[in-house]
UniProtKB/TrEMBL annotation:
<keyword id="KW-0472">Membrane</keyword>
<feature type="transmembrane region" description="Helical">
    <location>
        <begin position="435"/>
        <end position="455"/>
    </location>
</feature>
<keyword id="KW-0812">Transmembrane</keyword>
<feature type="transmembrane region" description="Helical">
    <location>
        <begin position="402"/>
        <end position="423"/>
    </location>
</feature>
<protein>
    <submittedName>
        <fullName>Pantothenate transporter</fullName>
    </submittedName>
</protein>
<feature type="transmembrane region" description="Helical">
    <location>
        <begin position="144"/>
        <end position="164"/>
    </location>
</feature>
<feature type="transmembrane region" description="Helical">
    <location>
        <begin position="319"/>
        <end position="336"/>
    </location>
</feature>
<dbReference type="InterPro" id="IPR020846">
    <property type="entry name" value="MFS_dom"/>
</dbReference>
<feature type="transmembrane region" description="Helical">
    <location>
        <begin position="278"/>
        <end position="299"/>
    </location>
</feature>
<feature type="transmembrane region" description="Helical">
    <location>
        <begin position="343"/>
        <end position="362"/>
    </location>
</feature>
<dbReference type="GO" id="GO:0016020">
    <property type="term" value="C:membrane"/>
</dbReference>
<dbReference type="GO" id="GO:0022857">
    <property type="term" value="F:transmembrane transporter activity"/>
</dbReference>
<dbReference type="InterPro" id="IPR036259">
    <property type="entry name" value="MFS_trans_sf"/>
</dbReference>
<keyword id="KW-1133">Transmembrane helix</keyword>
<feature type="transmembrane region" description="Helical">
    <location>
        <begin position="176"/>
        <end position="198"/>
    </location>
</feature>
<feature type="transmembrane region" description="Helical">
    <location>
        <begin position="210"/>
        <end position="231"/>
    </location>
</feature>
<dbReference type="Pfam" id="PF07690">
    <property type="entry name" value="MFS_1"/>
</dbReference>
Amino acid sequence: MSLHEKLGAIHAEGMEVDEKASETFGEVTWDEAEEKALVKKIDWRVFPMLCTVFGLSLLDRTNISAAYIAGAGRDLGLTAGTRYSVALLVFFIGYGLFEIPSNLVIRRLGARWWLSFLIISWGACVLGMGFIKTWEVLAVLRALLGMFEAGLFPGAVFIIGSWYKQYETAQRVSFFYMAALVASGFGPIIAYVLSLISVGNGMFAAGWRWIFIIEGIATIVSGFVAIFFLVDFPEKARWLTDRQRQIALTRVQIGSAARDFEHPNFAKVMRMLCNWKLGVFCLLYFIAAAGVYSLAFFAPIILRDGMGFDYTKAQLLSSPPYIFAIIASLCCAWLSDKYRIRWAILCGQALVGIIGLLIVLYTKPPGVRYFGLFLAVFGTQGNVPATLAYGQNQTPHVDRRGIYSAAMITIGSAGGVAGSTIFRSQDAPNYVPGMWTTLALQMLYIVVTFSMSMWMKRQNRRADNDRSVVLEGVESFRYAP
């Protein structure tokens, strides 16, 4: 019996592969202990540098707000009209447009060289912001910043999806996202310290310039370091032995059709983008991103206006819900991989978000409302990396994973724009329309996720019962609902 026949029989009987048994793919055989040692080695090589540069990217795209209140708003004339809003929004233009092209390039040039180039380039943009004298130049640099940063997040998700099995990705994508989120949480503190720097009596006496200069230099240095420490795709991993590299390649791929990577041309990319399943995954990520952005804008407002805290306390109290969200999300991601279930975790987190939003909206005691904020932040924040893992798991083809991650994050940029407009000043202090828009989106998320997962379960059963049914063009592949 061939490997595909064995796997098909296992699925048909509802059995799980015995993890203690040795595995054989072609001429490569390994046991559980060797695989665990290899995965541990991969973990330690993949994540440290990726998390570091993603944390820097979050710092570099948001440090404009810290510079604004440190004096850039006055010195560059950003307080007039919509100049500051323009400087913020131009970032998303390049960020949204260049994610898919970047994931097409990354495989040709190699992740290590391409991502390092992007890191150094956006670091140069941030450094340049420390020397500008007009808001127009700031807007141009912010647009370029969006173009160069566009490739990192989808590229990192693409890399992670290339190194790990279906039911190993959720906790690792969540760890990557949450670890960088922790790093970016120190951004305001770092910016405040840097703004205290003053050199001479001229241009460099302004502390806000040093926020851009120091953080820009740090990013450029990290870009050069990344050339040596960023991980590439498995077939290019020189830090593995030939045997380890072969195991790393075969353990994550099912069937020869999935192993053969082909650089897609324009027509093939268009066909991938027109896949209805990708449309569903993009819709789910749009909802997740919109919820995260809307709460990011709303949380300080409800703490200040709804609960009566002053500015300083409102800012300080905004952090604990996110710390809880990080811990809870990582636990749920571990459960999702451990018990090989996606839809229940995704829908459960969205449901927790709904409950939290209702508590914030309709209860009166400040302590109870604050508890609701913990649930709301976790419910929305946790589904961002979980949704990315969900989309990555539904294709065995490496080239499609790159397109899927880039397309989902591109649509997520639109979710960010939507999330920033949901809460209107005229709806203060309770922002009922914005709250119910967010609630409705979370309800839609549950319905779509459940429906999609049940469809995938049915397709898996069809493939188990009928050998002529081949999912995604690869024999023995099964969806991960």
